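Section 3.1 - Work completed
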Amino acid sequence: MTHRTLTLAAAGLAGALLLTGCQDETRLTQLDQSEVPTEELVGQEITLTNEVEEIFGEEFLTMGDEQTVVFVSEMPADLRPGDEVEATGMVEAGDLFSEPGDRDRLLGLTDEETANHLVNRESEPYLTEASVTVVE
């Protein structure tokens, strides 16, 4: 019985990682808020489809209502906030902007309120090395 439950749970996680679609929250945020432990998401490749909230230079963007952070391998040239994108990358988790100097670096990319918001966020899942394409 335990083996079947674990198999079904693993199948559910694998299926959840493949789901995409336009949502207010990204799929990663939904998984993080579900019963799926963050440790099971780390190291998995996942595709998110959602609207770009903000772009931070060539380095990263945020998407979805919860502003999921996506570190981009190559930022699309004409990407704008509001564009619908598909981002595929590896899931990592942690406190993103906790190093000395992060706030000052962010102030070079955005306004003070947004920089403070990003620095004061708690540990969370995010995407790294993501390829991003605009959904037509």
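Second construct:
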Amino acid sequence: MKKIMLVSVCITVVCILMYWGCCRVSVKFYLMPINAWERKIWMGPSPTQKEENYVVYHHFCKSERTLIDSIIAFNDRTIRPDSIKKYPDGYRRSFFKRSAVLNKDYREETDGSDMIYDHFDKRILLFEWRIVNDTVCVSLFGKQGIVPLADMDKDALSISRLSRVIGIKPGL
């Protein structure tokens, strides 16, 4: 009986340490090597559009709020105003949860049998920027906002700032 109790205590301690370890690991983002130019089926971009698809690693044991805050912080660190100006017809970033199929080495099938669009159920967030006349139209959390092109700088593109301008609470 003592052996069973000792084994169960050891297993419990190991499980708790593994869970604690998962919670302490920071979220990582990898750009999936998807070349939208190779799509022969549909939704291929024009030279004035860009599509980036990221897979999120270490999202297990993270609350939805923590995960969304991590994505926003990554996006705010890596987005550049000149990239948005370079792709005026649309600059889109999608973030997906890692799964057995979606990982940092995911590639679309050339015949269209497996495309990133088949995995939208695993998408966490989508951000999109589009230049219309003298404004930048921003789509995030399913809502749209406008930033004057003249005022567009790194700080103006911050998702945290934009969500306050649009009047939404990220992650809710």
